[in-house]
């Protein structure tokens, strides 16, 4: 027994990144989406949540739909507020390092050709929503893989705010994902309509998209 006193488990219950990446890859192979409650490393999501809270509300902008000249604010579709994440501060950089490792892993394992990652914090104030939509339109391939990580400790069954992931355009029932702290969701951007139901409290997340390189000669495809 004395020897056990010196035994220290290598890490806590959460799987190592490689194990998690492997599970995600297997999910994507078998069902083109991955829903992993509580899978994110605790220190990473705690750090990200603290970072999100430290950002001044003035840095948030009303979210819109479309990009560039097609950008449109439309309260009928979505009412959340967003703030793009860059590597300016350490927690943001750690997050981008982690997502870059995931990107490399998926490229090696699944040959996905993921080229870049854009992502933002999203704040859905109580009652906010994002109606059913696709993150990418077929044929306009650039957003390939959507990612959402939830940053809401203690989210309860009565808090609402589920993300509903529909299996295809005819699916009306969908799979409800509770936006609980540390839950990670990934899905092929062109394949799954999804929506965010209104919540009864503030709802925080980091949502992002891995993109392929659609730059044409001489014309760089901007990251957002
Ligand atoms: O927050 C979520 O659960 C999903 C957000 C979303 O669909 C998006 O930002 O495109
Ligand atoms: Fe979306």
Description:
The protein is of the alpha+beta class and 224 residues long. The chain has three helices and eleven strands; from the N terminus they run αβαββαββββββββ. α1 crosses α3 (90-110). The termini are far apart. The structure holds 2-oxoglutaric acid and fe (ii) ion (FE2). Residues 122, 130, 135, 148, 163, 194, 196, 205, 207 line the site of 2-oxoglutaric acid (AKG).
Layout of strands and helices, then pairs:
Layout: H1 17-31, E1 33-36, H2 42-54, E2 61-62, E3 81-84, H3 90-110, E4 116-124, E5 130-133, E6 143-150, E7 163-165, E8 175-177, E9 184-188, E10 194-196, E11 203-211
2-oxoglutaric acid (AKG) binds next to strand 10 and strand 11.
Organism: Pseudoalteromonas rubra
Protein name: 2OG-Fe(II) oxygenase
Pfam families: 2OG-FeII_Oxy_3
Structural class: alpha+beta
Helix content: 10-25%
User: What is the overall silhouette?
Assistant: globular
Rg, Cα atoms, Å: 18 Å
Characterize the largest beta sheet: strand count, sense, and whether it forms a barrel.
7 strands, antiparallel
Uncertain segments: 1-14
Structure described in brief:
By secondary structure, the protein is α+β, with helices and mostly antiparallel strands. The protein is 22% helix and 24% strand.
Summary tags:
single chain; 224 residues; alpha+beta; Jelly Rolls; 7-stranded antiparallel beta sheet; 4-stranded antiparallel beta sheet; globular; disordered N terminus; binds 2-oxoglutaric acid; binds fe (ii) ion; HIF_prolyl_hydroxylases
């Amino acid at each position: 027994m004395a020897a056990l006193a010196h035994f220290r488990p290598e890490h806590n219950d959460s799987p190592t990144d490689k194990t998690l990446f492997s599970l995600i890859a297997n999910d994507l192979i078998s069902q083109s989406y991955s829903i992993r409650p509580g899978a994110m490393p605790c220190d990473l999501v705690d750090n990200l949540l603290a970072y999100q809270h430290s950002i001044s509300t003035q840095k948030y902008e009303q979210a819109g739909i479309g990009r560039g000249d097609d950008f449109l604010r439309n309260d009928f579709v979505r009412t959340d507020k967003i703030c793009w994440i860059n590597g300016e501060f350490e927690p943001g950089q750690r997050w981008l390092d982690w997502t870059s490792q995931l990107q490399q892993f998926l490229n090696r394992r699944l040959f996905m050709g993921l080229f870049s990652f854009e992502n933002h914090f999203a704040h859905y104030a109580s009652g906010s929503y994002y109606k059913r939509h696709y993150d990418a339109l077929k044929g306009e391939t650039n957003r390939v893989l959507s990612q959402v990580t939830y940053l809401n400790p203690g989210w309860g069954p009565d808090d609402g705010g589920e993300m509903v992931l529909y299996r295809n355009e005819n699916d009306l029932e969908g799979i409800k994902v509770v936006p609980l702290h540390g839950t990670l969701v990934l899905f092929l951007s062109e394949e799954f309509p999804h929506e965010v139901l209104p919540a009864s409290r503030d709802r925080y997340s980091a949502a992002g998209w891995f993109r392929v390189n659609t730059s044409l000669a001489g014309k760089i495809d901007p990251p957002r």
